[in-house]
Every structure is written in C-alpha cells, then in structure tokens.
Amino acid sequence: MTPTVVLPVIVGGLYAAGVYLLLDRSLTRVLLGFLLLGNATNLLVLSAGGPAGFAPILGYSEPEEMTDPLPQALILTAIVITFGVSAFVLAMIHRSWRLVHQEVVGTDEEDRRVAARSATDADELDPDDLDPEDRAAGHADSLHTPDGDDMGVDDVDLPAGTGAR
C-alpha cells in the first residue's frame, strides 16, 4: 500500500471505532470514542493540509516550498478543545460513579413509554395523564393546583435563599 492510501484507511478506521464507542452506554467508552474521533479529525486536517515543506519563516526558503501553517494551528486548537471536553466528560463520569456507583447510563422507563406512543396518541394526550413532576416542569404560568385550579406566577413558592422577591 502506498503512503497516500495508508493515512485515509487509518482515518477511516479511527472514525469507525470512535463512532462505535460513542454509541455505547458506558461513559468510559463514550470518552474513548470521543478521543478517537478527535484524533481522526486531526489526522484528516493534517493530511488535507498539503505536502510537507519548509518551515514558513520569511527569508528561509521560497514561498512555494513553504508548508501552510493554518492546518497545524487548527490541529493545535483542536487538541486543546478536545482536552477540555475530555476533562469535562471525565468529571461527569466521576460524578455519575459517585452518585449511582455505576458508569453505564440506565434506561428511563418513562422515556421508553413516551417513545412507544405513536404520533396519533400524542394528539389525544390529556393533561391528567402527565405525572405531577412533568406538570411542575412546565412553564410557571401554566401550573395547576391539585384541585385543577390555575396557579399564577405569584402563587409559586420559591425555595428559601434564592433572593427572588
């Protein structure tokens, strides 16, 4: 295989492995998939940057023989951004482990029930079918009391120490 074929094959393999890992429920594998996608993108930008040449220093060589510094600057920026996002995802994994002692994202039964409904069932949705928590998550001007009376924004009890009103 020639060098011009090897790099696209490696980039394609990294993209495929990264997407595969991203689709897993394990947060550690999601992080590894994200890192593989970042590395594949960096290799893609590097290979699309053109042939290797001399350092882009004025007077060192002819302008036609110089390497374009823009892809290298983009890759350096992408490395920093990937590092920051990876640190954030790693913090989320740690927090998830501390809260539920597992790093696999579970299935929410309420989400499954909602996803199983067809589009015609959504038109026939009655507000009484919603859980009280779902109603509370709505807009403050559309809240209802347990008796069914409308509740305005002024009737909402705010937690102590919020500084509101």
UniProtKB/TrEMBL annotation:
User: Which Pfam family, just one, is annotated for this protein?
Assistant: Oxidored_q2
Q: Which residues cross the membrane?
A: 6-23, 30-54, 74-93
Q: Where in the cell is it found?
A: Cell membrane
Name the keywords, alphabetized: Cell membrane, Membrane, Transmembrane, Transmembrane helix
Presence of keyword Zinc-finger: no
- Where is it chiefly localized? membrane
Q: Tell me what topology the record assigns in the membrane.
A: Multi-pass membrane protein
Which spans does this entry mark as compositional bias, Acidic residues?
121-132, 148-157
Q: Which InterPro entries match?
A: CPA3_antiporter_subunitC (IPR050601), NUOK/Mnh_C1-like (IPR039428)
Q: Where is this region: Disordered?
A: 110-165
> Membrane as a keyword?
yes
Locate the coiled-coil region(s) and give their ranges: none
Q: Where is the composition biased (Basic and acidic residues)?
A: 133-147
Q: Which GO terms describe its cellular component?
A: plasma membrane
| Family membership noted in the UniProt record | Belongs to the CPA3 antiporters (TC 2.A.63) subunit C family.
Protein name, UniProt field: Na(+)/H(+) antiporter subunit C
Question: Which species is the source of this protein?
Answer: Geodermatophilus sabuli
**Highest classification ranks of the organism:** Bacteria, Bacillati, Actinomycetota, Actinomycetes, Geodermatophilales
